[in-house]
Amino acid sequence: VVESINAKSLGVLNGHPSNNVPASVAAKIGMNLHLRQHHPLNIIKTRIEDYFTQSPALREPRPQIEVHDSLAPVVTARDNFDSLLIPPSHVSRRATDTYYVDDKRVLRTHTSAHQVTLLRRGAPPRAFLVCGDVYRRDEVDRSHYPVFHQMEGVRVFAPDELPAGATAAEREALAVADLRAGLEGLACALFGDVEMRWVDAYFPFTNPSFELEIFFGGKWLEVLGCGAIERDVMRAGGMDDATVGWAFGLGLERLAMVLFSIPDIRLFWSDDARFTSQFKAGAATTFKPYSKYPPCLKDVSFWVPGATAEIAHGFHDNDMYEAVREVAGDMVEEIALVDEFAHPKTGRVSKCFRLTYRSMDRSLTNKEVDALQELVRQRLVDKLGVELR
Ligand code: PHE
């Protein structure tokens, strides 16, 4: 009997004082959209795997590629941050940005969280792909959702794959050349004959680091981040100093939205047959939107808790976004800050947000939106202690 992975089996709903995982997010654990046959995320995942296992463009000989697509999304903060050299003060570690299960464990914010653990599993040559759900507290709009999916690729070279007597700089240059060629091939396999460019980037765990952009639909789109694996990450992964490797990471929703013209990230979670029936593994697909239902806009204004602007600083917009999602679920499409000011005398801070309600599947009635908005307002008071205006 295979025990299924879900919030309960992973102990995510545990009442720990550091726990900030709402039930609506916990409920996504174990849904594994990336493993569902004919789901657009699975189609992209499979195309990427096929490219790395089969493309004749890649340099031979190559190690057998391991695919890890069912690793549990609860990882230690150490694996998610420290082992990747992300500094203790980095914003991404804050409880406003990351879901903490307890004081030691988080819902992974990226698939890079598995790099060091997987590196430790074997000697080079190694090549592995990691695919799974990742979690971030973030804004609310058509391209952001607290859960999304990433694909990570890692390649570690054995000494005999590189010229004997090569210097450290030469080995690194070979790894980077292999990385670039492999990922340019991947972009071609996914997008066809597109224009692309490399942009210098920064990640604490790779050096040098790059982003690949493609010219698609009239603009430059960032498709992935990558680089030569940082020496201290290699060491933590049990590799000696003569070993080099590269890593890349990409977001599957982003690629799928571009490739299939999917206009809203909430659609990936839809069970509506008008969405799901449009994707067939292998076949090239452009999503044909079924009728778009009218949006309904509602503003909410409140005084942020705290007597002065300085104290009000503790309020984070991500808390507001999450409170709305908890009440309205996938019926909220976007939340935009439309006004903010500090009272000239009292110093209290006021914010006004515009909420766009729209269902992906049906028309919402005025009555139900009014009821939702009332629940949202109440929630903001109860959970965040704001004073409605
Ligand atoms: N983990 C990075 C992110 O989520 C992407 C990345 C992976 C960059 C591997 C470099 C190497 O943005």
Write up this protein:
The chain has 389 residues and is of the alpha+beta class. The chain has helices at residues 23-26, 40-54, 77-80, 115-119, 168-191, 231-236, 252-260, 273-276, 309-312, 317-328, 366-384; strands at residues 65-68, 74-76, 105-107, 126-135, 147-156, 195-203, 206-216, 219-229, 245-251, 296-303, 332-342, 349-357, 387-388. α2 packs across α5, α2 packs across α7 and α10 packs across α11. It is globular, with a radius of gyration of 23 Å. 35% of the residues are buried. The model has no long low-confidence stretch (mean pLDDT 95). Bound molecules: phenylalanine (PHE). The site of phenylalanine (PHE) has 11 residues, from β8 and β9. One of its GO terms (molecular function) is tRNA binding.
What tags apply to this protein structure?
binds phenylalanine, 389 residues, alpha+beta, 27% helix, 13 strands, single chain
